[in-house]
Specification:
single chain, 399 residues, alpha/beta, Peroxisomal Thiolase, Chain A, domain 1, 10-stranded mixed sheet, two-stranded antiparallel ribbon
Amino acid sequence: MNDNRNRPVITGMGAVTPVGLTVSETWESLCSGTSGIRKITLFDTSGLRNSRGGEIRGFTEDAERPRSLQFLEKATGEALSNGNILENSEILEETGFALGTNFGCAESFSRYYTHRDKNPSVSTDALHQYPFGYYADTMRDEFGIKGECVAVSTACASGLAAVEAALQILKYTDAESVICAATDELTLYSYAGLCALHAVTKETIRPFAESRAGTQFSEGAAVVLIEYEDHARSRGISPLARIEGIFLNNDAFHTTAPDTEAAGITNCMEQVFKRSNVPKENVTYVNSHGTGTKYNDVIETRALKNVFGPHAHNLYIDSIKSMTGHEMGAAGLIELISTVMTLQTGTIPPTVNCSDPDPECDLNYCTDGSITADIECALTNSYGIGGANGSVLLSAFRE
C-alpha cells in the first residue's frame, strides 16, 4: 500500500447510531460525552440482566421491515451522497458491496417465532429476510449496485471484517469502488442470548473502570465508501482518510472466553504494522474495543503494551462504547468512522463513566472530556466472541 495512487481511501461515510442519525449528529454527541443508553422499548426485558441498551430513537421506520435493513439503507444513502456517487448510476454499476453483521435481520426471526407461538400456522415469509444475503439483494436492487456483493459474520469483529472483504473486492474484481457496511438490531432473542453469556452488566457500561461489570448492547449501522486514491482524484474527490493496513485473525482459544495472554490481539496489531510499513511511533491514537467487561479491558491494555512497548503510555486511547454501547456487528465500523473524524478534526471523544480507573488499565484512557491533539495515524481495534480479531490502521489525508 505504498503507492499513493493505488492506496485505498475512504471517500464517504454514513451512520445511524444510538447517539445520532447521521455522522455529524453522532460525532457531535460523542465529543460532548452524550450517552445513548436508555430503557429498551422494543421488547419486554423482564427477567433479563439489564433493561437498558443503545436503542435508536427518532428514526422513522416501516414496522413491516427489519430495523437493521432500514438503518443500513439510510446510512448507505448518506455515505453515497457524501462520496458524490448517489445519483451516478455509471459508478454504482461498477461498485461492490461488503456487509458485516452479527445477527443479520434477527427481527424477522424474532417476529416469526413470536407470532408462531400464538398461531402455529403463521406464514414463514418473514424468515426470507433472515439470511445475511438478503441485505445484499436489497441493496443491489435499491441502489443499482452491480459489483460483487458479499456478507461476512465474525461476531463483534464483523464491521472490520467487512473492510477486509471490501478491500478484496477492490483488488480482485473490476469494481472501481466498494460500499463497506455493517448493521445490527436489538431483538429479544439476540439480547436474551447475550444476557445468558453474562457479558451484560446489571448497571451501566464503564470501560477501563475498576467497578466495570460488563457491557451494554446496542443497534446501529455504519457505511464507508472505499476506492483507490487515483480513482477518487479522477472524480475530483478529496479523500477523508487513507487505509494504511488491516489484519484479521482468530485466537483459536475458546468459544466464548478471551485469551488472557492477549496473544491473538497482540499478533493482529503487529501484523498490521508489518504489512503497512508505518512505524509504530507514528500512531498517537487508538480507538479501543473497550467493552467494559472485566477480562477484555485488561487484556486489551496488555496487548497495547505488548505491541507499542514504552510508546503505549504516549497513546491517546478511548472507548466510544461508553456512550454508544456495543452495537454488535456494527460496532467496528462505527468506531472506524469515529476514528476518521478524529483524524480530520483532531478531537478525541471521551471515555465516560470511568471515575474509578482500574490500576491494571494504566494507559492514557481519555476520561476527562474531549481532547484536542494533532493525530496523523490512528489504530482501531475490534474483537469478537469466538476469538475473532481485527485491526485497521488509518492515516489522515493531507494534500
